Amino acid sequence: MKLYIISGLGADFKVLEHLKFPSHLEPVFLDWLIPDKNETLDHYVRKMAKKIDASEPFCLLGYSFGGIIVQEIHRILPAEKVVILGSIRSHKEKAGLLGAAARTGIAGYLPLKLFTSTFTENQLIAKMFDSSNTKLMEYFTVRDPYYLKWGIAQISAWKSEESPEVIQILGDRDQIFPIAACHPDYVIKGGTHLFPATRHREVSAVLEKIFNS
After folding, report:
1. pTM (2 d.p.)
2. Domains with residue ranges and CATH for the chain
3. DSSP per residue, the chain
């Protein structure tokens, strides 16, 4: 069975490359598309969904923003299982800066030039994630400014009720989606938002349990 995987905003699959999946699954990594100007999330999700062969059963796995995308894909192309890593199951789980951005809508007004400065971009990523991780910038390789601004605005504006079908794995030190606002099915102890890379053995063990149950 194919397991379609979508990484986090701006991230390629290096952040997930050490994860191990059960042998009966065939991992298929879906690359990010650069959104059209003023493209809606629904339209974007439908374009991403075209990469999926829905003629046979499949599973979905998403990391961070990719977790939101796979949940939206699941609404139009139901999967056997949906697993999200370092992501949220509903808009009610937004907290901290992300919660404030959701309440104010400020993300849509951020100047595009904020995402065109390499220095500013690197500083932003370092503050949001784990600046002590020497491989941090290797994980975030999709740098198109409009895509980054669009993605942050979509995360901030996303509204969805929690689906009991979605299996959530979260690190207890996640800076982007604080665990205090969530009720994950599995908790990775000591895991920051980069836990799929830094705690890949623990995550792989959890995935083995989920996909073999």
Report:
1. 0.87
2. 2-211 (3.40.50.1820)
3. -EEEEE--TTB-GGGGTT----TT-EEEEPPPPPPPTT--HHHHHHHHHTTS-TTS-EEEEEETHHHHHHHHHHHHS--S-EEEES--SSGGG--HHHHHHHHH-GGGGS-GGGGT-HHHHHHHHHHHTTTT-TTHHHHB----HHHHHHHHHHHHH------TTEEEEEETT-SSS-GGG---SEEETT--TTHHHHTHHHHHHHHHHHHT-
